[in-house]
Amino acid sequence: GYYRVYYDTENWRKIGRYLNSKEYENIHVLNRAQIIDDAFHFVVEKKLKLSVFCEIAKYLSKERDYIAWYPMIKAFEFMSNI
Known about the structure:
Oligomer: single chain
Low-confidence stretches: none
C-alpha cells in the first residue's frame, strides 16, 4: 500500500534544514520526492503550514534530478486549477 508520512512541525523543519544543507543528496531521490509530495498533501489538508512547506521546497533550487522535481510540478498544476 501507499502511506503518507506525517511528522510534527519541528521534525518537518529539521527535514527542511537538512534538505537545504549540502548533504541533501544523502537522502535518496525517491525519498526527497516523497517528502515534497507528502508535505504538499498536508498543506492542502491544512495539517502543515505553507511556510514550512516552502522552507522544505526551497532546497529544489539546487536539485538536479527530475524525480525529486516531479511532485513539485504536480503541486504547481494543482495550484493552477484552484
